[in-house]
Amino acid sequence: MQERPNPLKASLAAGRPSLGLWCSLGSPLSTEIMAGAGAGWLLIDGEHSPNDLRSTMAQLQAAAAFPCEAAVRLPSDSAVLIKQFMDAGARSLMVPNVRTAEQARAIVAAMSYAPAGIRGFSTGHRANQFGRIKDYHRSARTNQLLAVQIECATGVANAAEIAAVEGVDVLFVGPGDLSTNMDAMGNPGADHVQAAIARVLQAARDAGKAAGILAPLKADADRYLRDGFTMVAVGADLGLLARGSDNLIASFSL
Questions:
Q1: Which residues, in sequence order, are bridge partners of residue 43?
Q2: Is 65 helix (H, G, I), strand (E, B) or coil?
Q3: Name one GO molecular function term (predicted).
């Protein structure tokens, strides 16, 4: 048995943009619905959503029937969490608030088997189809993708060094945290925040890496795509449900 190639990694490596959808509801059913929408990738959120290892694995199973790549955002850069979630089948990871190249190198090491890294060895788990994927351990890095989130001024200042780390595939801007950490809470459109976002994009480009961002407003997403961001999240299950239900009730006058 061969591992299915990672379509998101291939698309980004070729410089092709890929639209994504955030999955925040913690439900395999809602994630299955999102997976059928035609997006290039999904993000199962483990940082700001009620997800744990088991609920994330169930959503990976639900998404596996579709051609989109299901990525997982971990709650932290813990090597223990990286090992557990990767063994459960998460091969495309997003890690929040990466601030230094040293931190990025530690994350890559946690994703990699020895001698390159420290990922714990197991002969049978969901990631290698319970032992059915031949030579999985030697080739595991081939289909793995790592997106590190730049969410503070320190991360922006170190973006070039972070992008240069071998094994980092994407610099992904978290505009909410970045604006908050730059004293512009809720206003990622502020001039100094936009300048920081542009700096991250340039750092990724200079290193030959992809740049990503969350942009639930279409005008923002279109602009970021024109600027050169290629891993762009354009909506979330929670927001679509909340705004859709709000707008439906508001459309009636009783």
A1: 22, 71
A2: coil
A3: metal ion binding
Nearest one of 32, 35, 59 to 45, comparing CA atoms? 59
CB-based contacts of 108: which residues, under 8 Å, 6+ apart?
117, 146, 165, 166, 167, 168
Q: Which residues pair with 211 in a beta bridge?
A: 171
Q: What is the pLDDT of residues 188-242, one digit of tens each?
A: 999 999 999 999 999 999 999 999 999 999 999 999 999 999 999 999 999 999 9
Residue with tokens 């300048």: 195
pLDDT, tens only, 164-193: 999 999 999 999 999 999 999 999 999 999
Q: Which residues does the annotation mark as catalytic?
A: 48
Beta strands in 18-112 (DSSP E): 18-23, 41-45, 69-73, 92-95
Burial of residue 102, with CB atoms counted within 10 A of its CB: 0-12 exposed, 13-18 middle, 19 or more buried: exposed
CB 170 within 8 A of CB 233: no
Say if CB 172 and CB 115 are below 8 A apart: no
> Do 234 and 240 form a contact (C-beta atoms < 8 A)?
no
* pTM, rounded to two decimals: 0.96
Distance of alpha carbon 11 from alpha carbon 142, whole angstroms:
14
> Greatest CA separation found in the chain?
68
Half-sphere exposure of 97 (CA within 13 A, CB side): 12
Q: Domains for the chain: give ranges and CATH numbers.
A: 7-246 (3.20.20.60)
The residues near 129 (Cβ < 8 Å, ≥ 6 apart) are: 1, 3
- Distance from C-alpha of 38 to C-alpha of 19, rounded to nearest angstrom: 9
State which amino acid sits at residue 214.
L
